[in-house]
Design a protein that fits this description.
binds adenosine-5'-diphosphate, Phosphorylase Kinase, domain 1, five-stranded antiparallel β-sheet, ATP binding, D-amino Acid Aminotransferase, Chain A, domain 1, 25% strand, binds magnesium ion, 16 strands, alpha+beta, phosphoribosylaminoimidazolesuccinocarboxamide synthase activity, seven-stranded antiparallel β-sheet
């Protein structure tokens, strides 16, 4: 994102790039800079969504503030240290405590959509859980379900049954499960007040000095599914997604076989996505949108 010589002046070192975030070290801190990249089906797409990184980072920051009493998080600051001038990173930066990330995606599902719906239709279950019969698409589940997967460095994440998840997470399993469910419920209730249905989401946790921290991004349209409450009230079988699902649907519609070459997106879907991500920020954290509006438009 920036020439390395500029960064070295400040003692900032590039560590690596994730699919969406670029990681740097500075003193004892880890810096995450959210890019405009977009990944789908485990591939980084050739097109970027302008300002998506700013929108995502602002949403995640808003949630870290809101949830810090439920679970400690790794966030240290969203500001550059004094004397460091990197305007390109404005609104995209999170300075965090480096943790050892747990190799699990802590997925919580509150509604029957996506992969959960597919499993329900095929086998009458979601993850390890049996679900009442005859529920319609988009129905709220009787209670939110914890359906963890592996977090694969390469390739696809695999669902984890309870026994395997317990083997990986050891003594922390119950605590992490409870944290994930509590964070989802808190997020769902807050989103509902703001006119959004939080259908499902994914958390990541890390360990540092034996303590659990919430890390990475938090309840964003990249890591969650959102519908608008007013559309949900009207007809829950016909809601537009305000999240990354619109790109997955687009890529499936054009018949991509999910192997390289990775297709380009249409200008229309790029615009649509930017608008919908912006709508989520606008509903959840309007004061944050106001602060970054000049950088987005
Ligand atoms: N506090 C933290 N300490 C260590 N690693 C972190 C922390 N927060 C996030 N990470 C890691 O940084 C990366 C963020 O970049 P991202 O583009 O989201 O990667 P990915 O391709 O794995 O989704 C992830 O691999 C995540 O596990
Ligand atoms: Mg990620």
């Amino acid at each position: 994102m920036l020439p390395s010589k500029d960064l070295e002046i400040y003692g900032i070192r590039k560590i690596r790039s994730g699919k969406v975030r670029d990681l740097f070290s500075w003193k004892n801190e880890l810096w995450m800079v959210t890019s405009d990249r977009l990944s789908a089906f485990d591939y980084i797409l050739p097109d970027e969504i302008p300002a998506k990184g700013i929108i995502l980072n602002q949403i995640a920051l808003g949630w870290f503030e809101k949830t810090s009493l439920i679970c400690p998080n790794a966030l240290l600051s969203e500001e550059l240290p004094e004397g460091v001038e990197l305007p390109e990173w404005e609104a995209r930066l999170m300075r965090v405590l480096p943790c050892d990330p747990l190799p699990v995606e802590f997925i919580v599902r509150g509604y029957l959509v996506g992969g959960g719906w597919k499993q329900y239709v095929e086998k009458g279950i979601v993850g390890d859980y049996s679900i009442p019969k005859n529920l319609a698409y988009g129905s709220p589940l009787p209670e939110p379900l914890f359906t963890p997967t592996t977090k694969a460095r390469e390739g696809h994440d695999q669902p984890l049954d309870e026994k395997t998840a317990k083997n990986i997470l050891g003594d922390n399993y119950e605590r992490l499960k409870t944290l994930a469910l509590n964070l989802y419920l808190h997020g769902k209730n807050y989103a509902l007040k703001k006119g959004l249905i939080l259908l499902d989401t994914k958390f990541e946790f890390g360990i540092r000095d034996g303590k659990i921290y919430l890390i990475d991004e938090l309840i964003t349209p990249d890591s969650s599914r959102f519908w608008l409450s007013e559309e949900f009230e009207r007809d829950k079988t016909a809601c537009a997604h305000y999240d990354k699902q619109i790109v997955r649907d687009y890529l499936e519609k054009i018949g991509w076989n999910k192997q390289p070459p990775i297709p380009r997106l249409s200008q229309q879907i790029i615009k649509e996505m930017q608008q919908r991500y912006k709508e989520v920020l606008s509903r959840l954290f309007p004061e944050r949108l106001k602060k970054v509006t000049a950088l987005i438009d």
